[in-house]
Design goal:
Layout lengths: L2 H19 L5 E5 L9 H7 L1 E3 L1 H4 L5 H8 L5 E4 L7 H4 L7 E4 L9 H6 L3 E3 L6 H17 L1 H9 L19 E5 L3 H11 L4 E5 L10 E2 L3 H6 L3 E4 L13 H7 L4 E4 L8 H9 L5 E4 L18 E3 L8 H19 L12
Parallel strand pairs: 1-2, 1-3, 3-4, 4-5, 6-7, 6-9, 7-8, 9-10, 10-11, 11-12
Bound molecules: glyoxylic acid.
């Protein structure tokens, strides 16, 4: 009997105990766009009652639902990129915790949460390894043209054109990481194994990091063959990769984005790629998802992906455990496991 089967049995037992003994589970509001489903509500339901406006009142606007049901809600589970701003917070006067299910929390008005004394937790490090793997996958794909080669074979061109354009080597490349947090550090760790030379930019130099620090992204770009953006999207980092940085990266330079679309000035990036002013790009995120600039569809030196770097069953399981642990800690007045800094 596996650990997973055992915990499923425990969950079922606990559920029926709850039902027999009267329900003492704390109430948690689920905040989600109708297109986002709860990953697996089973283990959540062992510990919490979930109030899900999308499921309970498909047509009722939150502005009507929450005043009737949300007055005593202390904790909210925010799924995916569902925006959470003052208009919703206004309807939840007792709210004290927002448990976000993502690493990035740019869809949440953090200043407003801070002002109201509402704590916010995020996915912590649950996704970092998978995002880092994906950043390396995108980089290898752009450099060695894996997706383009796949298209070449499938389109039947191989017998007619036996010469396929050469890709370039990852070994020894100078890689600049923008944002050396938990994801950036995992990316660096992986690329060290490819003998890449790592440098980084972040808000401040990390005294414990062995990598070269640049306090200016343009300087980092001048000294890099590849830039990988891994930082959070904030008002300071919006368009951190602008025209000047792209120029500094140069004609052979490659950019990989696994952070958020607006970290890059996408209009400029498209121009630079179309005009051959930079070497290539691997993009998992875009400014206006799910819309991707169609000019990029034609370019074999660009690899496109629909914002799924974090998505593996393993990382979801880790997220699930973390969310439950955060909510349990909150309801028992213990320290939160992955609090987001709000000041
Ligand atoms: O993009 C995904 C996340 O922020 O978790």
């Amino acid at each position: 009997i596996s650990e997973r089967q055992m915990s499923a049995q425990e969950n079922t037992l606990q559920k029926s105990r709850n039902e027999q003994e009267g329900d003492h589970r704390p109430l948690v509001l689920v905040h989600r766009l109708p297109t986002f489903s709860l990953l697996s509500s089973d283990s959540l339901l062992i510990h919490f009652r979930l109030l899900d406006p999308v499921a309970s009142a498909a047509d009722e606007p939150l502005q009507e639902f929450l005043p009737r049901h949300g007055q005593s809600i202390r904790a909210l589970l925010c799924l995916g990129p569902t925006p959470l701003k003052a208009d919703i917070l206004d309807l939840l006067p007792s709210l004290q915790l927002v448990a976000a299910c993502s690493a990035g929390v740019d869809h949440i008005d953090l200043a407003e949460c801070h002002r109201r004394g509402i704590a916010v937790t995020n996915a912590g490090t649950a996704f970092s390894e998978d995002v880092a793997d994906y950043a390396v996958a995108l980089l290898l794909d752009v450099l060695r043209r894996v997706s383009a080669a796949n298209r070449f074979v499938r389109s039947g061109l191989w017998p007619q054109k036996p010469d396929y354009p050469l890709g370039s080597k990852l070994w020894g490349k100078r890689v600049g990481i923008v944002g050396l947090g938990s994801i950036g550090s995992e990316v660096a760790k992986r690329l060290v194994a490819f003998d890449c030379r790592i440098a980084y930019n972040s808000r401040a130099k990390k005294p414990s990091s062995p990598y070269t620090y640049y306090d200016n992204v343009c300087d980092l770009a001048v000294n890099s063959d590849v830039l990988i953006t891994c930082c959070a999207l904030t008002s300071e980092t919006r368009h951190i990769i602008n025209k000047d940085v792209l120029t500094a990266l140069g004609k052979e330079g490659i950019i990989i984005n696994v952070g958020r679309g607006p970290l890059i000035d996408e209009k400029e990036l498209v121009q630079y790629l179309v005009q051959g002013e930079i070497g290539g790009a691997g993009l998992d995120v875009f400014e206006k998802e799910p819309y991707v600039p169609t000019e990029l569809f034609e370019l074999d030196n660009v690899v496109l992906s629909p914002h799924l770097a974090v998505l593996t069953p393993e990382s979801f399981e880790a997220l699930h455990e973390l969310v439950i642990a955060n909510l349990k800690a909150f309801f028992s007045n213990k320290p939160l496991l992955s609090p987001v800094r709000l000041d």
